């Protein structure tokens, strides 16, 4: 795997520098500060770094695998932090900003991240500047070996520009407009961060979650969302409220008009943004929840098919049986 070095200068009048290395398979992002490093029987390295200045604190946890490196960091500062970066080598980086905001300038082009946004970046041999505002910031990164990424990168017409960008060794993001971090992505990120598996089992588990996370990012990119029509942070919150409401009220979810009024948006944005964030329609999600609950009741309860049909919100047992067979390929009575 080729290397990326990010040399960070926290303040112009500060003599200390933070050296960062992205993409290297056996080393941390950082060369200074307090650091502990250990590896397990599966040759996976765990590195914890802590860097403290007068008005700046960074805690960073990294897990280094064969083809990618995961990094989760929390930065807290009482002042705006100015950062000078130098990239050496090449890597593909999945960027998720869970909290906070920052702006980065690469070759004269500025890109800004705010909380709950993500993107995919390809970097090689360049210098850049970043401004991280005061406050608390939580960032989650996955540095992927370029060859490994290309192996799974879809040959889709919407990805042609990024593929050519990588082939031509050009720095930049897969899309100018950042993507929203969906609830599914956040769930996967938390599963990776909080993984309790050890050794080879952790290696398999985390590998599968990274691939699933990459799939979710690329899936959103493949949807017909115009760059000038992103899902706003405000609407991300509203869609999460809608999802939570539907999860609890799947028996009687109401109409789209009623739901959009309840969460404070309109029907068009409800339908569009819900599909973008969760990969399904409002009523498609309701059907998923109903089928999951019905299957659970069939396996764990003694309710009749008619009772279960009513329990999950179907007025007609025949309609329920048809939907169940379409979902699982078998009739409800066959599952018992």
Automatic annotation (TrEMBL):
GO molecular function: DNA-binding transcription factor activity; sequence-specific DNA binding
Keywords: DNA-binding, Transcription, Transcription regulation
The keyword Transcription belongs to this UniProt entry's keyword annotation: yes
Matching Pfam families: HTH_18
SUPFAM superfamilies: Homeodomain-like
Xref: SMART domains: HTH_ARAC
Domain HTH araC/xylS-type: 240-336
Protein name from the UniProt record: AraC-type DNA-binding protein
Organism: Arenibacter nanhaiticus
């Amino acid at each position: 795997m080729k290397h990326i070095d990010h040399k960070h200068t926290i303040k112009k009048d500060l003599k200390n520098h933070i050296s960062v290395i992205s993409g290297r398979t056996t080393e941390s992002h950082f060369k200074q500060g307090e650091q502990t490093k250990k590896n397990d029987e599966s040759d996976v390295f765990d590195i914890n770094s802590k860097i403290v200045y007068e008005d700046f604190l960074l805690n960073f946890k990294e897990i280094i695998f064969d083809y990618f490196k995961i990094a989760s960091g929390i930065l807290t500062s009482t002042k705006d932090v100015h950062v000078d970066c130098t990239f050496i080598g090449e890597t593909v980086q999945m960027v998720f900003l869970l909290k906070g905001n920052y702006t980065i300038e690469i070759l004269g082009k500025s890109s800004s991240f705010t909380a709950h946004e993500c993107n995919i970046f390809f970097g090689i041999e360049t210098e850049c500047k970043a401004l991280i505002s005061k406050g608390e910031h939580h960032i989650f990164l996955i540095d992927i070996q370029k060859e490994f990424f290309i192996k799974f990168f879809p040959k889709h017409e919407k990805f042609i520009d990024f593929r050519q960008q990588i082939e031509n060794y050009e720095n930049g993001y897969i899309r100018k407009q950042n993507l929203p971090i969906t609830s599914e992505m956040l769930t996967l990120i938390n599963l990776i961060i909080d993984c309790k598996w050890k050794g080879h089992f952790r290696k398999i588990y985390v590998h599968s979650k990274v691939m699933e996370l990459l799939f979710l990012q690329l899936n959103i990119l493949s949807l017909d969302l115009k760059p000038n029509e992103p899902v706003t942070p405000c609407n991300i919150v509203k869609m999460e409220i809608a999802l939570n409401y539907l999860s609890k009220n799947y028996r009687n979810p109401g109409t789209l008009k009623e739901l959009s009024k309840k969460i404070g948006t309109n029907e068009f944005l409800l339908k569009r943004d819900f599909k973008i964030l969760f990969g399904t329609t409002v009523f498609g999600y309701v059907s998923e929840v109903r089928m999951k609950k019905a299957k659970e009741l069939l396996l764990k309860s003694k309710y009749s098919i008619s009772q279960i049909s009513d329990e999950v919100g179907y007025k007609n047992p025949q309609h329920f049986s048809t939907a169940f067979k379409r979902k699982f390929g078998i009739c409800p009575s066959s599952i018992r």
